[in-house]
Write a structure and sequence with these properties.
The protein is built from 2 helices and 3 strands. It is α+β, with helices and mostly antiparallel strands and 49 residues long. It has one domain. The longest helix has 11 residues. It is globular, with a radius of gyration of 11 Å.
């Protein structure tokens, strides 16, 4: 997945999983229970840049 992000430069790179919310390099890990809040989380992340 990291290679895809580096090659394509997407605005967001998101992975949904059972682990907690965290930024892992270029990829944002969002736990499954927060799928409905994805847009809010990514907009908040953009505001921090």
């Amino acid at each position: 997945m990291d290679e895809c992000v580096v090659d394509n430069h997407p605005q967001y790179a998101v992975k949904f999983s059972k682990i907690g919310y965290r930024k892992d390099g270029n990829i944002t890990n969002i736990p499954l229970y927060l799928v409905g809040k994805t847009k809010e989380l990514l907009e908040g992340e953009r505001d921090l840049e």
